[in-house]
Amino acid sequence: MTLDSWTLYVITVLALMSTPGPSQLLMLSNSAAHGFRRALFTAAGDLSANALQMLAAGLGLAAIIAASGTALAVIKWAGVAYLLWLGVRMIRRAKPDDPKLNKTRPKVSLQNLWMQGFLTSAANPKAVVFFAALFPQFISADSAFWPQLLILSATYIAMDGFFLTAYGFSASWVAARFKGTAKVWIERAGGGFMVAAAILLGLKSVTQR
């Protein structure tokens, strides 16, 4: 792989990430509700699923997944239902803290936050097909396959991680400056982002990431 080819790949990925998708909206939601540092586990879950999807594409499993329309539908709609449930629950739980109570709300576990990110990304199995179609455009037949795949995968994960971090930090910064009733509306907006993520995932076409 030449430097020119890698640069073109970076430009292509930047174009693909120019608009937020389900994972970015989930990161916005969790950062606003749980704080930036805890939401990093959501980003880690998303990137873990991406890594497995890229490995599956490299191993040639994309053709198998693409041929199984039933499997695609089941995984996709299970993910949509999961995100809708999370979003609606967050909206319903967004209430002002009772000053008479000396206890705080229980925190969502880091494992739960990681799983949300992982399932949101994994619920889009067409991503495997996407990677299987994208990578060959930038892999040279004159060089070893796996090192090139590793470079492309690592580049994508680094860029995706940067975007997720930027979204999360921005949402956390805004949420930290609101208290009381305003904070409740921030949490409701976070639930709304999660519902929007479910809708986006449901509207994904075969050719989309």
Describe this protein with a few key phrases.
209 residues; mainly alpha; 9 helices; 76% helix; globular; disordered C terminus
Describe the protein.
With 209 residues, this protein is mainly α. The protein has one domain. The protein has 9 helices and no strands. It has helices at residues 3-16, 22-34, 36-58, 62-67, 69-93, 110-122, 126-134, 145-175, 180-203. Helix 1 (3-16) packs parallel to helix 8 (145-175), helix 2 runs antiparallel to helix 3 (36-58) and helix 5 runs antiparallel to helix 9. The longest helix has 31 residues, at 145-175. It is globular. The chain starts with a helix and ends in a 6-residue tail after the last helix. Mean pLDDT is 77; it is low at 98-103 and 205-209.
Beta-strand content bin: under 5%
Shape descriptor reads globular
Overall domain count? 1
Mean pLDDT equals 77
Structural class, judged by helices and strands? mainly alpha
The number of helices is 9
Q: What does the radius of gyration come to?
A: 19 Å
Distance between the termini: 23 Å
Number of strands: 0
Largest sheet: none
**Helix content bin:** over 70%
Uncertain stretches of 5 or more adjacent residues: 98-103, 205-209
Order of helices and strands: HHHHHHHHH
Question: Could you write a compact summary of the structure shown?
Answer:
The chain is mostly helical. It contains 9 helices and no strands. The protein has one domain.
Strand and helix map with partners:
Blueprint: H1 3-16, H2 22-34, H3 36-58, H4 62-67, H5 69-93, H6 110-122, H7 126-134, H8 145-175, H9 180-203
Helix pairs in contact: 1-8, 2-3, 2-6, 2-8, 2-9, 3-6, 3-7, 3-8, 5-6, 5-9
